[in-house]
Amino acid sequence: MSLTQSFSSGIVQAPFVTSSRLLLQTWDVIGSRDEDVVPHVGKGLVWKVCEESDLTVLVFDVKNDFDLQQNLVSSTYLKENNNFHRFEFLCTKKIPEFSVNWSAVSLFIDNLEKLDELKSKINSSHPLIVTGHGVGGAIASLFTVLLLESIGSGKKRPLCITFGSPLIGDKKLQEAISRSSVRSSCFLHVVSCKDSLPKKLNSQPVDYMPFGTFLFCSDTGATCFENPEFVLELLVSSINDQSQGFEVADYGKLVKNLNRKAICKDFSLQGMNLTHSTSLNASIRLQLCAALGLTSDMQQLQHQNIDINALVTKLEALEKKFMFQKMKFDPFRRLNMMEIEMAKLEWYKKHCKSQGSGYYDCFKKGVSTIDQDAFLWQKNLTNYWIDMVEEAEMKPQKEAAAFRTRWLFAGTNYRRMVEPLDIAKYYENGLRKDYEAKGRSRHYVLLEKWLEEYKKEKGNSNGKIRKNVELILSFDSCFWAKLEEALFLCGQLDDLKENVEAKGKLLEFENYVYESLKRYEVSPEVFLKESSYMTWWNKYKGFANNHRLVRFMSDLQHFDRYMISVKNYELAQRCNYS
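-> structure tokens emitted (578 positions)
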């Protein structure tokens, strides 16, 4: 769907949330005075656990004298000065640190021993809801983050439901959590349009950033938002001004009202003139109406000194940006698109072979329009996989491992198909050397490293790597770089007896080639008459020391047997995966 035809669906999603009894049930536990539920008192903090037959609800609350301050503190500072490492699992190379609210995390650290004990005692067999109202919600969010370290895609996830909670961290924390859909889906924040506490920490400049799903609600309706910048704009611009003082929102009454409206389908947003609005613009206006409790008459006025039209325009731009980013980083969708680009390169490989030359050498010469087309396909694939590798690095360690495994086979085929084209461009002018040390992109290094880790973990060899291209690609995607270095050394053949270093490198390459051929790990196109490999061999064969390679290259029947063996090898591997 194009962005011009898109819409924001939060007003459709909200009734699904409010129609369930989950919010009612959670709020009932927050306000419960049940004598069977014994509160646990810590340092400035109280929590209680309500275990029912099918659900466990953990409620956090803070003591009345708690003072929430605005300042943030970095995870690095907490580690070095407070010996607090619990949130370090969220850090990655791309996000080495993040910041959280100092007041809330101090309260958390003061009770850490008891909270660790609580974490170990929670019944994991039941679905778990972690909740809290106001600052208690901030502590609930921190405790849920603590739980996420041990939560994978195959385990039950806690659901954190907060009511009127202030934000707890900066943009880096938001990115660390939002990069994982598993983690981001664990947070639902209920915010009333009458409650100013959620925006208390957001003075200018804004340092805090929301994460998870936000359910904005009023007496007339509710809507959901996931876009953090959209949520932040609403928190900063459209909730009651702090100068008016804090109004205590009655969330119990609010969720009951929304539950009734959702069940009875009693949401009416009448009197809105949306004739000239786009679908996205109209849906945002409807959402603002529901979230802020605007009536048709109020829309004609300046609501709380805010230009509604200007706000809608700004929110529309933020939502378009968010939608574009989601489309751009949707790994499944983009992988399907990249498979088309891979198919084009497979066709290019076959085309080059039909012309009597390998695709590596055709690409290196780049004389035809088809070669230029191949350059565009290669560029699209490389941009995608650079993003994918970066995405994997952004994820926390455990989830990144699962992510890498899911994309491993596609990434391996990509590397073996496309890296030779990068090598061809690197050496095309004959002016550069040492591709592996000086020219190789880091994403190729990591893709190869992850493949080796996978094989080591599975205790398996190359026999378990999927093939889906014509014949096989050379297993070592740097084969052509090694070949180019050997070609360069051949220019020193006259001095080879004196050049001990060059002689040793060529001998090493001879042995490497023979072992690769013996295991059928080299694409048969290297034997084409005009290939760079045959150019090297014809220059070097009189100096060859590996007699097994000499015998192989001297017997034309070996080429035929090699081709047949490669085809049979690939067929066997495909059968292993069928």
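Strands lie at 40-41, 45-51, 56-62, 72-74, 99-101, 128-133, 159-163, 187-192, 213-217, 222-225.
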